[in-house]
Amino acid sequence: MSIKVYGDLTSGNCYKVKLLLLQLGCEHEWVQLSALEGETRSADFLARNPNGKIPLLELGRGQYLSESNAILHYLAEGSPFLPVDRYERSQVLQWLFFEQYSHEPYIAVARYIIRFLGRPEHYKQALQEKMAPGYAALGVMEQHLEHHSFLVTGHYTIADIGLFAYTHVAHEGGFDLDPYPAVRAWIERVGNQPGYVSMDDALQQDTSNKPPEPAA
Fold first, then answer.
1. What is the C-alpha to C-alpha distance for residues 190 and 24, in angstroms, rounded to an integer?
2. Cα 130 vs. chain centroid, distance in angstroms?
3. List of residues 6+ apart from 30 with CB closer than 8 A
4. How far is the CA of 90 from the CAs of 14, 93, 97, in angstroms?
5. Is residue 171 part of a domain?
6. Position 207 pLDDT exceeds 90
7. Which residue range forms the structural domain that includes residue 105?
8. Alpha-carbon distance 163 to 114, whole Å?
9. 20-62 pLDDT, tens per residue?
10. Sheet containing 63-66: which strands, arranged edge to edge?
11. What helix, strand, coil percent values describe the chain, rounded to 5?
12. Would 215 be classed as within a structural domain?
């Protein structure tokens, strides 16, 4: 199967897909796009994903799959990253839903305001409103990880990949992880997994693997 992914490796939602692909040892083509520069709103891209968002998985045969955690679930099928047991599998989904509804809207958006928008004054209130629910999400994770090495089954799954993506860069959104020792220890465990590549290294590798631009 030919796999192509459209995404931006400065985005946690895209990085999580890249990390899983690398840890699966899955050959793929990565097409770096920037939503900030409007590249996901082109007619060509919208023909692939009318929602105009990344990441987007292209499988060939005219098949496309969007939404980062749906992509994780698809790619992890049949691998150790997705449990076979019905209850454990549902626990993975539970954490992935938590990530998208209780975690990402606060931690990722705060990071976007600070890192990519430069913390403009007119976003001050919006940024402040992200803090309490973002810390609440970190608190939920801390409480769970005080008694578990990983989020589900005692070993590394796509639940960990999904939540790691924005948690390990939460400081870029103004969140202090010092009061969360279990979360910090978990971040270190994820970073020690076979095939792990950091967000910065993944971006650097992708950039270095691109063919040179044609001469003008």
1. 15
2. 18
3. 4, 5, 7, 9, 18, 206
4. 23, 5, 10
5. yes
6. no
7. 86-191
8. 20
9. 999 999 999 999 999 889 999 999 999 999 999 999 999 988 8
10. 29-32, 4-7, 56-60, 63-66
11. 55, 10, 35
12. no
CATH number at residue 91: 1.20.1050.10
Query: Which positions ≥6 away from 113 have C-beta within 8 Å?
Result: 119, 120, 123, 126, 127, 130, 173
Question: Hey, which of 56-60, 169-173, 208-212 has the most confident mean pLDDT?
Answer: 169-173
Neighbouring residues of 147: CB distance < 8 A, sequence distance ≥ 6: none
Phi, psi of 5 (to 5 degrees): -125, 130
- Residue 83, Ramachandran bin (φ over 0: left; ψ between -120 and 50: alpha; else beta): beta
Give 215's contacts (C-beta < 8 A, 6+ positions apart).
none
In a domain, residue 143? The reply is yes
Token pair, residue 187, equals 């971040």
Predicted TM-score of the model (pTM)? 0.93
Question: Residue 118 is inside which H or E element, if any?
Answer: none
Closest CA to 167 of 106, 120, 114: 106
Q: Residues 105, 58: one domain? A: no
Residue 65 phi/psi, 5° resolution?
-140, 125
Based on the structure, what is the number of domains in the chain? 2
Residue the block writes with tokens 């924005």: 166
